[in-house]
Request: fold
Amino acid sequence: MSQTTGTKIKPTRPWKRTPKQQALITLNLLIGAVVSYLVVLATPMKGKLAYLAIFFIAVIVVNFVESYIKSGLAAAKDSIATSFATAGLIIAVVPIFSILFTIFDRGRAGLNFNLFLHDMKANGPNDPLGQGGLLHALVGSGIMVGIALLISLPIGILTAIYLTEIKGIYSRPIKFLVQAMSGVPSIVAGLFILSAIVFPITKSSSGLMGGFALSILMIPTIARTSEEVLLLIPNDLREAGVALGGTQWRTISLIVVPAAKSGLITATILGLARVAGETAPLVLVSGGGDAVNPNPFHAPMGSLPFYIWKGFTFGTPESIARSWAGIFVLLSLIFLLFIAARTLSGSGSKK
Reply:
């Protein structure tokens, strides 16, 4: 019996551009740039915005003509759609990178080792950047976000369990309330705590009040994300738990919730990221102290958003540089939270 052996065929990648196609795209962009420059030079339309608009139109026309000559009308129409999609991507991405670059460029001037070791108790807005720091803001933000998490985590997850597993008669109004709370402006949460607790009861600002205000914003985020996670759990797991003689609550606690563990952790991290940068409620109810205050029940407590807002309010070069450094630190922390959420979400989906 004869056996024929064939040569291995290397898999092709039709989506990958060849060097010739890459050179043609570069040539089209250069033609568009030259045409845009000549139009701006010869017409009253001036400025960067006019140049970008003309460049976009010129590139579309050049791509259309090139595709029509090469592949016909259908490919030419497709090139127009591709040009608009690419332009949309650029419009979405460029401002984001511009913001990140601005924050890094202006924030690095105020970054130093003492920034994380000292507070602003003995320093003013005109003091050199090497003096003072945002230790009080880091400690305060951690305490208030921690208080909000202690309140929001059980309420949010239990709400999600009620909506997905119990499905009682109050499911619709609760779901409507959670969705409505998701769109509540942050300042409304601060005003609610201010009018309901601070003015009539405590008569003073504190970190506890800031934690209460942040929890109002965190609960709907955790509840909605947890609900979506629990809905992804197959019903076969629930049916298997009931078939083995388990009650509904034992099935939920021993099968459903452990199966959704990584997703629930992701929901928690997203809730933390949601409130970490909130400014308005903390300005109203936390007091924004300049010294490290580990006691959330007494005296004003600083936070990173309040530290940033206060620095810009003073308006001196030193205080503004400190604010930019605070923005850089806050954004870095939020990025780390989102990366952790993405990592946990990816590991959960692989399982």
